[in-house]
Design goal:
It is found in: Cell membrane. By secondary structure, this protein is mainly alpha-helical. It has helices at about 1-35, 40-55, 60-75, 80-120, 130-150, 155-170, 175-195, 210-235, 235-250, 260-265, 275-285, 295-335, 340-365, 370-385, 390-409. It is built from 15 helices and no strands.
Length: about 400
């Protein structure tokens, strides 16, 4: 009888292990696909993520996705990467978060390290296909705004919150404006919707204990304090690199382009990277998919070869990982509170407004400059929204269309 029980438990354990492994492979496949096709910067990435994880794979619903986006907007670091890490953690635990980050990040890292080593002499900033990729990002974000708006900014009051958030985001642009908008929307939502009969949020299964989460937050703060001190005691180049990139990943809100001034201060001013090399790498970073924070991989490769690239990549993304893993278990508990659900209703509407503002500026204002650009954007949106074409096909069509526009012009 004991042997039969042991055999049954072994079969259950084997099935559970197989299920976890399958979930990890699913996360890896989805994140690699996004890492190879997600052009257009952090706001566009949120559109790609929504299409892949919410609409296609249905790993989260719209409310849970918007809640996760709101959390990552509060945290310093690369918001889109943090959303991807959070989805990986929710889907497949701590290992899922690591796999999601690796899949989304490594394609960009490889491309930018190759740029640093071999093709810095080419000017790709004005290439037609690069412009076409930016137009594709416009279509992707427009799709995300419409999809999230229908579910998260419906009704007069929520639509008003979304529109007001978009207006404020456009007129007041700095590193802390999004945090202030989300905080104000949360307070307004708590007052307006706390007694409304909203559906309870879907369960977010986070297989990380609060003790582990608290340890991650403690490690995040400890490294932020300890690294500058260790750098003074042990003036090794590798430690200096790790400290600078870790600080850049820890103290920048908004992610994406916001990190560039700090990276320039840390690398160019220190003499690690020349001004021309910095600008060449910035142009290259615009042409590759994935998070813009991998610009640090390029800078690390310029100053320290492959070893420098590895240090820079690990250091700038480590704060994002520690903050997401440290925050998710507490966030999952908070969102079950009725008062907090009201706050999230307001926050979700604000997230739609912020996404709408980003669709206009910088995406639309810097990308759709001619009637041909508008025609291509409309065609790509038609392919995505009406014909339900996969995002990678829309990206490829955008690159081809951009090249044709530049050839004709």
């Amino acid at each position: 009888m004991q042997n039969r029980s042991d055999a049954s438990q072994a079969q259950i354990g084997t099935k559970a292990g197989s299920s976890r492994l399958r979930a990890l492979f699913e996360v890896l496949a989805a994140s690699v696909k996004l890492g190879l096709t997600s052009f257009g910067g952090p706001i566009a990435h949120l559109g790609y993520f929504h299409e892949e994880y919410v609409r296609k794979r249905k790993w989260l619903d719209d409310r849970s996705y918007a809640d996760l986006v709101a959390l990552c907007q509060f945290l310093p670091g690369p918001a889109s990467s943090q959303v991807g890490i959070g989805i990986g953690v929710i889907r497949a635990g701590l290992a899922g978060g690591i796999v999601a980050w690796l899949g989304f990040t490594l394609p960009s890292v490889f491309a930018l390290v190759l740029f640093a080593m071999f093709v810095q002499q080419f000017d790709i900033g004005d290439a037609g296909w690069v412009h076409g990729l930016k137009i594709a990002a416009v279509a992707i974000v427009a799709q995300a705004v419409i999809g999230m708006g229908h579910k998260l900014a419906n009704g007069r009051s929520r639509a008003t919150i979304a529109a007001a958030s978009a207006a404020v985001a456009l007129m007041w642009q700095n590193a802390f404006s999004q945090i202030a908008i989300i905080a104000a929307a949360g307070l307004l939502g708590a007052a307006l919707y706390r007694s409304s009969s909203t559906e309870p949020p879907s369960l977010l299964h986070v297989s990380i204990g609060k003790r582990t989460a608290a340890g991650c937050l403690f490690l995040f703060a400890g490294l932020l304090i300890a690294l500058p001190l260790l750098r003074q005691i042990w003036p090794a180049a590798e430690l200096a690199w790790f400290d600078s990139y870790y600080r850049a990943g820890s103290l920048v809100f908004g992610g994406g382009h916001v990190v560039l001034p700090m990276l320039e201060s840390e690398t160019v001013s220190a003499g690690w990277v020349g001004k021309d090399a910095f600008l060449a790498g910035y142009g290259a970073a615009q042409a590759v998919p994935g998070p813009l924070f991998t610009f640090a991989s390029y800078l690390g490769a310029v100053s320290g070869g492959l070893g420098g690239a590895l240090i820079a990549t690990a250091a700038i993304f480590l704060p994002a990982f520690l903050l997401v893993v440290g925050s998710l278990p507490f966030w999952s508990s908070l969102r079950n509170s009725r008062r907090f659900q009201g706050a999230l209703a307001g926050i979700n509407a604000a997230v739609v407004g912020i996404l709408l503002a980003a669709l206009y500026n910088p995406l639309w204002t810097t990308t759709v400059r001619t009637s041909a650009d508008f025609a291509l954007a409309a065609l790509l949106f038609l392919l995505l929204h009406i014909w339900k074409s996969p995002p990678w096909a829309v990206v490829a069509a955008g690159a081809l269309g951009g090249s044709l526009i530049y050839t004709i012009a």
